[in-house]
Amino acid sequence: MAENRAKLIKAARAAFTEKGYAAASMDDLTSAVGLTRGALYHNFGDKRGLFAAVVDQIDSEMALFAKRKGAETGDDWLGLLAEGAAYIELALNPDVQRIVLLDGPAVLGDPSQWPSQNSCLQATKEMLSKLISQKVVKSVDVEPAARLLNGAALNAALWVAASDQPEEALPLAVDAFHALASGLHNSTSG
Fold first, then answer.
1. I want to staple 131 with a disulfide (CB 3.0 to 4.6 A). Which of 15, 65, 80, 137 is the partner?
2. CA 173, 85, 131, 190 torsion: positive or negative?
3. What is the DSSP string of the chain?
4. What is the value of pTM for the model shown?
C-alpha cells in the first residue's frame, strides 16, 4: 500500500507540475503507474486528497531546504533570515511554483492553514523565543511575530510565483523580507 501511495504521489507531482491541477487527468495518472482509480480513491479519497498529499510533500521539502540554508549560516539570527529568503527563492522552482504557490491556494484554500505551514510556524516561534532569550530579537510576543514573519515569506513567495517576471521579482521580495525582519532585531545586542 505504501508503494502504491508513493507511486501515485510521484506521478501526480509530475502531472500537476506539467499540466496543473485542473488539467491533470486521474485516469492518465493512474494508468501511467499501472494502478486503477480505485487505488487513488483508497489512498487519497479523491483528486483533491492526492493533490493535498503532493502539496504536503513539497511544502515539507521546502521547509527542510530552508532549515538547511539557515543552519549553513552558523548564526541563529542570520539563519532566521536565510530560512525566509530560501523559502521565497523556492518560488522559482517549477514544482513549488505551479503546485504549492499557484494551484495550492486555489484548490486547498488559505496556505497558512495547511498542516505543513503550521509546523513551519512552530519552528519560527521556537527560534524567535531563543533569539529573544539571547536578546538578539526585541522582546515581542512570539505568536504574532512568528505569524508575521512566516506570512511575509509566504506572501513574498506567492507574489514571485505569480509575477510575469519572477526572476526580477525575487531579489525585490528577498530585500523587502530582510528589511521587514530587521525591525525585530535588537540593535543594542551588538
1. 137
2. negative
3. -HHHHHHHHHHHHHHHHHH-TTT--HHHHHHHTT--HHHHHHHHSSHHHHHHHHHHHHHHHHHHHHHHHHHHTSSHHHHHHHHHHHHHHGGGSHHIIIIIIIIHHHHH--GGGSHHHHHHHHHHHHHHHHHHHTTSB-S--HHHHHHHHHHHHHHHHHHHHHSSSHHHHHHHHHHHHHHHHHTTB-GGG-
4. 0.89
Contacts of 132 (CB under 8 A, 6+ apart): 138, 139, 140, 142
In the chain, what is the greatest distance between 2 CA atoms, to the nearest angstrom? 62
Question: What is the C-alpha separation between 60 and 73, in angstroms, rounded?
Answer: 21
Q: What is the distance, to the nearest Å, from the Cα of residue 24 to the centroid of all Cα atoms in its chain?
A: 22
Per-residue pLDDT of the chain (190 residues; tens, 9 = 90+): 789 899 999 999 999 999 999 999 998 889 889 998 888 899 999 999 999 999 999 988 998 999 999 999 999 999 999 999 999 999 999 999 999 999 999 999 998 888 877 888 898 999 999 999 999 999 999 999 999 999 999 999 999 999 999 999 999 999 999 999 999 999 865 4
Given CA atoms 22, 26, 27, 31 in this order, what sign does their dihedral have?
A: positive
Among 135, 151, 117, smallest CA distance to 184 is for 135
CA of 5: how far to CAs of 9, 19, 36, 38, 50, in Å?
6, 20, 12, 12, 9
